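U., I forgot to send this yesterday:
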Amino acid sequence: MTARMLALVSDCYGMGGGIARYNQDLVEGLAEGGAQILVLPRHGRADGIHLPAGISQEPPVFNRLWYSVKSLWIGWRRGPFDVVFCGHVYMAPIAWVVARLIGARYWLQTHGTDVWESRPPLRRRAIEAADMVTAVSRGTRHILLGWVHLPPECVRVLPDTVGDRFVPGPPSNTLRDRFALGSGPILLAVGRLSASERYKGHEQVFGALPALRAEYPNLVYAVAGGGDDRRRLEQRARELAGESAVRFLGFVSEEDLLGLYRLADLYVMPSTQEGFGIVYLEAAACGLRVVGGVGGGSADAVPDERVGVLVDPSDRAALVAAIASQLARGKVDPVAVEPYRKAHFAAAACRLLARLMTQPRRRRGAK
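Result:
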């Protein structure tokens, strides 16, 4: 498809994390379909990165005011652009202004808590002005449509994708020894240990471990990731589960992460507020069954018992039973996550762009 897009994003190439990865997957999928995309990030440099054909990335602009000025200047001087893509709802007001200024269609991406909680009037107007909104999950779409005035057909689901390197493989005894994980079973969780993300359910799992270790004496819970809540969580783990039941691994490299998925016996993170839960997909793609939490967008990443189960983490008995039952079921057939591979994601993104290019522009802010 022939389309020129200006992508206003928080981060893309040169940064890690779920949103940066999502933006990379999106622009690459659209570029494969023929789109020409100029990325303007707030963070992250593409220096030394070989970008795919059809994609270029400007240097980052950290200051919000200067980012807005540069967005307007690029939109006016580097066009024409057919579409202004906004990769985060916090940037929606400037994306709306740029799109209106240059007469482009306006595509807004939403991820989860960015549209669940903070709802200032200007942001709401900027969301309602979009020609198309994409959400990473049905849960996020449902919450968004509950408080903004948008035609339901303007809000589409474009879920996260899982990288092609996430496939089953032999377990690594090197990692087992390095992290002192013992004979297992090994429960695994991956993510930031942030005070703002206590909904991920680590403490509830800590509380379930004594009952599980009564049946599996060598069971350990391996928690990968760092953050400002780690010290408190370490103390809570000792209080709730004892001295040896939880291993805090800290930050792990991409290579070690893949090895941990292949080494573990079950992925356990009963989060109640995931926008989607890309880690659930990564785990399942490597053959791990998943115990997630009820709430948010997790139902899209853990759609049925082929992948795992969702549980209310506040119900300790149910959490213990879910972990025990999933351990007994063995590995996941990776075929269950094939719809979330990059090829499917790219095709879906290109269909959405084609639809956006052919539909009439909405009157900005129309109810």
